[in-house]
Each structure stands twice: as structure tokens, then as C-alpha cells.
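This entry is listed below:
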Amino acid sequence: MTLLAVFDTVSASNNGAKLQLKHPKTGALVFADAENTKPIVIRLKGQDSDDYQRASRKKLIEMRANKEDSTVINEATFDKTDTENINLFASLTIGWENIVHDGQELPFSKANATLVYTKYLEIKNQVAEFVAEKANFIKG
């Protein structure tokens, strides 16, 4: 790897990285089986990915076009922001392994990612923290 390759965070963010979910209380890695052979993993794109950058530009353009007052905060603002974040995280999700919902392994899709991030706040929070950390997307 050349020295400058470590600065190519766009390629690394587009390729994605694996987040293994952790128990919200203990911080221990979580598995889908008692033998700890099936890690619960979500593959995500990073903040420097084309998709994230495109979503950021779109949001900025919308805010300026609507002349949204960033000082006005109400329940509707929070709900809209939460929905936008869930949709963003779903769009950054490339795939997953061993996600079980209602006793069934849940196949990966953007719709199912939206469902998971809507229903399970802690998973959404872990995804948000992982995506925000550039080190997760830098090789070497």
C-alpha cells in the first residue's frame, strides 16, 4: 500500500466495513447462537461514501430551498430527523449476517434494514456510531 492510499477514505467507505453488534449493557459481542459461531454482523458504508455524501448534499439543498429555521425544534422536527436518519442508515447498509427478527432469520433488504433500525433503537445507535468513525473504513 502506498502512503497516499491511506487517505483514500472514499473507496474504503464505498466498499464498506463490518460492524459486529455488541450487547448494550455488557459491550460483549453478540451472536445468534449459543455456541458463539454466528456473529450478528451488519456491513455498512461510511460517511465518505458516495451515498452518504449525496444524501448530505440533498439535505443541505432541501434545507436551503425550504429556508428551514434551524432554531425551531418541535416533535415533528425530531420525527422527521429520525426518519431521515433511519433512511440514511438503511441506504448505507450493504448487507448483514444472522439478523433474527420475530424468531426468523431476516433476509437483507433496504426495507428490512429500515424495519430493524426503526424497531431496535440500540442497533440504530451502534450503526450511527460505527458509520461516524472514519477509522472503521481505513485499511492499514
Remarks:
- Residues 47 and 132 are 6 Å apart (CA to CA).
